[in-house]
Structure of Rhomboid family intramembrane serine protease:
Amino acid sequence: MLILPLHRRLTRRNFPFVTLALVLANFFVFFALQSQDGAATRRALAFYGDSGLAQVEFPAYRDWLRAHGGKDAAERAAFVEQALAAGSTMAVLVLQSDQPFLSALRSGTVVTPQAENYESWKKERTEFDALWGRRFTDSHALNYQELSPSRILWAMFMHGGIGHLVGNMVFLVILGLLVEGALGEALFAAVYLLGGVGASLVSLMLRWGDPGYLVGASGAIAALMGAYCVLWGMRKVRFFYWFVVVFDYVRAPALVLLPVWLGWEVFQWLFAEGSNVAFDAHAGGIVSGALLAFGVRTLRWERRDFLDEDEKAEQVKQVQTDLAQALGHLGKLEIAQARAILEKLDSAGPPSPDVRIALYRCARYANDLDGMHKAARHALSLPQSGPVVHKLKELFDDYRKATGDRVRLEPALMLVLARAWTRIGADADARLVLRALAARHSALPGLPDALLDLARRHPESSPPWRDDLAFVIEKFPASPVAQKATFLLAQAG
C-alpha cells in the first residue's frame, strides 16, 4: 500500500532548506563513509575463511546458543549450520551481529586461556576484529544489543543500499516540503531528529537482544508522517493512494491518514515474517511524530498561515465559481438568483470588490433606487487601494449618472473617495468633490490637507496649482494648511 500527500508547488518562500540539508547528509554518509564497507567486509571475511577462527568459534557459538540464546536459539543454530554447510558467509555475519556472544568471546569466557589453541586463536581474532572494525556501518549502526546515543543518531543517516537510500529520500522530500513549511526550519529539524530517536527506541525495546542492526532514515521520515497528520488535523488535504491495482487521488481530513498509516505498519510488523524492514521502527516513528506535533499545536508554535494556505486557495476557487454563476444569472437578468448567491458570498467571505460591484449591478438592473444607494455605499466603503480604485471609480460614475447626481454618501466617505481619485490622476472629479465638501462641510477633518495634496499634483506655478492653493487660503484662512499654501505661493512669486 502506498499513500502520498500531494506536495505544494515549490517557491522561494517555502523552499525546504533543512530537508535539502538532511538529504545531502544522508547521501554524504552513504557515499563518503559507508562506500568502503563492501571492500572492508570482503577482506575481513576472506581473512576469517583463511584463518582457523571458524573451527574454534562456531562450535563454541553453537554451545553458547544452547545455553544463552533464548527462545530463537534453535532457529539461529540451525541457520548457522545450514550456512556453514553451504559455504555461505552469512554464518559469520550472524555470529558477528550477536553482541552478547562477542562480548563473552572477547572476555575469555567462551574460549578460555586454558584452551590448547588459545594463543593462536587470540591473535587471529584480534587481527580479524581490526579488519572488521574498518566497516563504518558495523561500528556506527544501531545494535539491538546495545543502547548507544551515538549509534541511534548515526543510524538515522545510514542505509543498507542505494535503493534503500533513494526510496527514503523521495519520501523525505515529499513530506519535508510540507512539514518544514508548517513548522519552520529549527522546529522541523527538532521533530525530525527526536522522532527518529523515538522510532529507534521503540525498535530497541521490541527487539532487545536480537542479533543484527538497524540503519535508515525511515523511522525519522515516519515521524514526519505522524506530524503531518496532526499538524493538518481536520483540514482536508489531497493525497494519492495505491493498493494492489487500485489507485486514485482523494481529498480527506489529514488526521484520517494517521490510523491508516499506523495500522498498516503494525499489520506489517505482526505478519510480514522474514522481512528485513523495521516496521516496528516505522510505527514508533509515526507515534513519536504525532505526539511531538500535538505538543507543537498545544503550544501554538505551528505556522498556521502555511497550514491554511490550501483551504484559502479552495475558498478562493469556490468564490470564483459562485461569482461566475451569479454573473451568469445577472447576464440573463435573473436578478433574484444572482442576488441570492452574491449576498451569501458577501456575508460569508472577506470583502470582495467584484461581489459588491455585482450586487450594485443587481440593484441597477432592477431599477431599485434605494437598493442602488445602499449597494453603492456598501461597495464604495471598501479600502481604496490598487486596481480596486479604478473599478470603484467606474461604479461611482455610473451611480451618479443613474441617480441624477443625487448621491447619498457620507461626507467622510466622499473625502476618502476624492483622495483616492487624486492618487489615480482623476483630478477634475476629485476637485469637484473636495470643493463641494468645502462649501458644505468645511469642518470635515482632513479636508484642507486633501486640497493641498491635489494642488501638489500639478507643476509648481501652473494655473491649477495656483488656483487650488488660493482656494485653500480662501476657505481655510486660519488653518496651518493655509499657511503652507501662502508660503508656497510667496516662494513661487
